[in-house]
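Format notes (please read before filing issues)

Several people have asked whether sequences and structure tokens are stored in separate files. They are not. Every record keeps both together, in the order shown below: the sequence lines, then the token lines. Line labels are part of the format and must not be stripped during preprocessing.
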Amino acid sequence: MAIEVLMPALSPTMEDGTLAKWFVKEGDKVEPGDLLAEIETDKATMEFEAVEEGIIEKLLVSEGTEGVKVNSAIATLSGEDNSTSKNIGETDTSNTIKSETSAINAKKIENNSNSKSRDRVFITPLARRIAEKKGIDINLISGTGPHGRIIKKDLANLKSAPLGSVLQDPDVVTAKSISPNISDSFSYDALLEIYADRNFTEIALDGMRKTIASRLSEAKQTIPHFYLRRSVKMENLLDFRQKINKKLLDKNIKVSINDIIIKACSEALQSNPDANAIWAGNKLIKFDSSDIAVAVSVEGGLFTPVLKDTDQKTISNISEEMKDLASRARAKKLMPTEFQGGSFAISNLGMFGIESFDAIINPPHAAILAVGTGKKKPIVLDDGSLGAATEMELSLSVDHRVIDGVLGAQLLHTIVDNLENPIGLLNI
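Then the structure lines:
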């Protein structure tokens, strides 16, 4: 009896994923614990193990297939039926019949060019705008594009329809003309028209890039950001780091400036506990521990692994954990629990020579610290004479729903104070 192997949910929020690689082929015998496939989500790549014994009858999804829905069948396995697997039987047959019927009906609708009002009209966004402008009834047009889709050239030789023949409400058309859909203006079809005479390469969006685009667009539009900026004098910080690394030489641990920044932020959140919170609709959730996400650049995007309980860890502990998380993030081998959560984030572009920038808050976090490079600058000394100092620019992006101006200023002041007087961050 054939058993369906279903696409697993590898995180609480996972809806679909990419079947990156099969470790088995049809005819292979598998036992519980054997590796079946490698699954890519928007955040990680994880291995999927067999939970039953049997023989792989058919691989239903090919390697590299994107957008495979959770709980959809990816393979069939011969074996004993049980409660955790879905038996292939009557249900599949009925679903197949239903799907075939729907497809036939859809094809009838699509191909019926004489229909006065079709249930669905397949038309490109650009062609739709042209039709609206000319007052053309798209229900009366046969499309020449793929699958009968109406494209621009189908409308090229058509003149505006008589006033009374427009099926749409004039008020609706007027409203659209006054307030056009900006996203439609730069849709795929519209952009192909604009760049028709240019050579280019199309790059398909993977799950990670789609998620980054969606989450950060939503964040910028829905979170009321404000920004606070301070400079950090780095002499004490650089000296502190040098002494730490000298002391840790025999342990083969090398602490970075970023490791110390993580510790400085974790202690600042403890000193300003009201800032260690997130927005939760009609409530705030305030945390006891300092769980800090750190942006890590990976191929195709970025991860934000979360270092938990950093207020309870030494700088050397943080350094070792950060190196491990960053390494596994670049290999896309993080577990969901390792990149979910936290209330605060750090993004450091100083290593690329960036002097200052403003970062976008990554929900559900309430703040993110943008860190620039250290740079020698002229300063006025306490005695009024001119001197030089190495300064690092910090920019704190803050969710105004959670953190008000004074609280945000206090938080950033504490971070700066911790970095300029780092001895208070010991024990290492």
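For reference, the curators noted about this record: Residues 81-118, 160-182 have pLDDT under 50 and may be disordered. Residues 90-111 form the longest helix (22 residues).
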